[in-house]
């Protein structure tokens, strides 16, 4: 089997998240999200960049997918401006968003992707908001595809095989994976590009398909298997003690303080 | 009949990882009267590990002696665990939110159509059932979740947050009865993904997310060589070295060391922030550390607002001095 350039299909999963410099506030039991700066989840940017680099080197057609509210369309536009070809927006109403977990989102994505031709599926290693590292791997399992997580290098071996390097708590693993497969992208994989002005102009004309999540969720018995019951902020840290004196004196004070407050030194 | 709560053990080399005993702690906290706790152990040369696990008083231990189980390969690991699941049908499965746990848990969850709550730091009973507390936005907030169904539940727990279990409470002990040790047959190897090579990190170095002590450097470290004194301090304290995004972006160290909202989240006993100003993105990754020590030349640096102990000074003077004094004190 051989692929012409256009027949190799790359799918990228992305999520719109708060910018990392945003503070979190809770209002009436919900995360305050007005006037927040939204970005493409930083790990998903590595996935978009990896897709674009693959296309530049080997050809292919890139479709980006998101499941999120109306505003998440901006994240898709960013990906299109970077160089993706088309986008699919599984649009969730606010209420739906509150009542769907990783299981439900993976099910929605599965129903959209199962009948499409996809040769390479890319996603971020995790999202910096929920951070549960579930959705992409759940999806590849539902699709019965192999996957490799936290990759730091991606190379094409032939039409049906990719070679990756992955970070496993400091060890580096080299894995050959048969396609179609999912790869979740880790820091160090690449340097995501900024959309160019020309890219932003072109993106406006690229196709975006909207799929109402309600249609997909209607196929399921339930929308979630886990639910949020409570939301809280971490207790504020007590302000500490600024040590005084010469460098030597400060170091002595610190060692004294650590000895009395921690059992680490008895080990 | 109570519920069956199972822990999937994880090893590094020939040793059980601490996350296994932390998962057992979570299992005991979750267990109610008449619930039972078991462990699934996969690997080779398992006798010593088996014995160590049985010492906790477990009622049942499932063992898959299998050379093909290392290095970890997702497809194969899922087949192994799925086979065990189909045989044993536990109601609750707990593992560490480690590199393997993060990978294996959602695969298993999808393949048995179960809900999963990831990266749990505490659990507590409530009227709505058991609440599982987990950080979101890398610790800028916490959510507590519950399961919508009675079973099966899959839970991954964050390292360093549950006290490792030494022994099951007497009421859960198998007592004088012999514990059940069930040997399971490994599955056929997968061909869809093949690990061709593993380059292990420097032996003896401690994983960041499990380290009791973390010594981190920021832009103030100024260069790759600037990390040397930090490494020496970490070595004396048997800790791990971390870094801020600034230090990684400047090329002073590998992204694998990055702590923050992007990067790793750590909760050690002691966190040394050296030459780190304390951007919100970094604080998200370390502000739950038990004791925070900040060393920075800028007295206005935001890191001092969350530090338990602050030293205004040059890290290149303070850190070597601290290392030398600690070396003496610990000798």
UniProtKB/TrEMBL annotation, chain A:
<comment type="similarity">
    <text>Belongs to the ETF beta-subunit/FixA family.</text>
</comment>
<keyword id="KW-0249">Electron transport</keyword>
<dbReference type="GO" id="GO:0009055">
    <property type="term" value="F:electron transfer activity"/>
</dbReference>
<dbReference type="InterPro" id="IPR033948">
    <property type="entry name" value="ETF_beta_N"/>
</dbReference>
<feature type="domain" description="Electron transfer flavoprotein alpha/beta-subunit N-terminal">
    <location>
        <begin position="28"/>
        <end position="220"/>
    </location>
</feature>
<dbReference type="InterPro" id="IPR014729">
    <property type="entry name" value="Rossmann-like_a/b/a_fold"/>
</dbReference>
<dbReference type="Pfam" id="PF01012">
    <property type="entry name" value="ETF"/>
</dbReference>
<dbReference type="InterPro" id="IPR014730">
    <property type="entry name" value="ETF_a/b_N"/>
</dbReference>
<dbReference type="InterPro" id="IPR012255">
    <property type="entry name" value="ETF_b"/>
</dbReference>
<keyword id="KW-0813">Transport</keyword>
<comment type="subunit">
    <text>Heterodimer of an alpha and a beta subunit.</text>
</comment>
<protein>
    <recommendedName>
        <fullName>Electron transfer flavoprotein subunit beta</fullName>
    </recommendedName>
</protein>
<dbReference type="GO" id="GO:0005829">
    <property type="term" value="C:cytosol"/>
</dbReference>
UniProtKB/TrEMBL annotation, chain B:
<feature type="binding site">
    <location>
        <begin position="244"/>
        <end position="245"/>
    </location>
    <ligand>
        <name>FAD</name>
    </ligand>
</feature>
<dbReference type="GO" id="GO:0033539">
    <property type="term" value="P:fatty acid beta-oxidation using acyl-CoA dehydrogenase"/>
</dbReference>
<dbReference type="InterPro" id="IPR001308">
    <property type="entry name" value="ETF_a/FixB"/>
</dbReference>
<dbReference type="GO" id="GO:0009055">
    <property type="term" value="F:electron transfer activity"/>
</dbReference>
<dbReference type="InterPro" id="IPR014730">
    <property type="entry name" value="ETF_a/b_N"/>
</dbReference>
<dbReference type="InterPro" id="IPR033947">
    <property type="entry name" value="ETF_alpha_N"/>
</dbReference>
<feature type="binding site">
    <location>
        <begin position="275"/>
        <end position="282"/>
    </location>
    <ligand>
        <name>FAD</name>
    </ligand>
</feature>
<dbReference type="Pfam" id="PF00766">
    <property type="entry name" value="ETF_alpha"/>
</dbReference>
<protein>
    <submittedName>
        <fullName>Electron transfer flavoprotein alpha subunit apoprotein</fullName>
    </submittedName>
</protein>
<comment type="similarity">
    <text>Belongs to the ETF alpha-subunit/FixB family.</text>
</comment>
<dbReference type="GO" id="GO:0050660">
    <property type="term" value="F:flavin adenine dinucleotide binding"/>
</dbReference>
<dbReference type="InterPro" id="IPR029035">
    <property type="entry name" value="DHS-like_NAD/FAD-binding_dom"/>
</dbReference>
<dbReference type="InterPro" id="IPR014729">
    <property type="entry name" value="Rossmann-like_a/b/a_fold"/>
</dbReference>
<keyword id="KW-0274">FAD</keyword>
<feature type="binding site">
    <location>
        <position position="219"/>
    </location>
    <ligand>
        <name>FAD</name>
    </ligand>
</feature>
<dbReference type="Pfam" id="PF01012">
    <property type="entry name" value="ETF"/>
</dbReference>
<dbReference type="InterPro" id="IPR014731">
    <property type="entry name" value="ETF_asu_C"/>
</dbReference>
<feature type="binding site">
    <location>
        <position position="296"/>
    </location>
    <ligand>
        <name>FAD</name>
    </ligand>
</feature>
<keyword id="KW-0285">Flavoprotein</keyword>
<feature type="domain" description="Electron transfer flavoprotein alpha/beta-subunit N-terminal">
    <location>
        <begin position="5"/>
        <end position="184"/>
    </location>
</feature>
<feature type="binding site">
    <location>
        <begin position="258"/>
        <end position="262"/>
    </location>
    <ligand>
        <name>FAD</name>
    </ligand>
</feature>
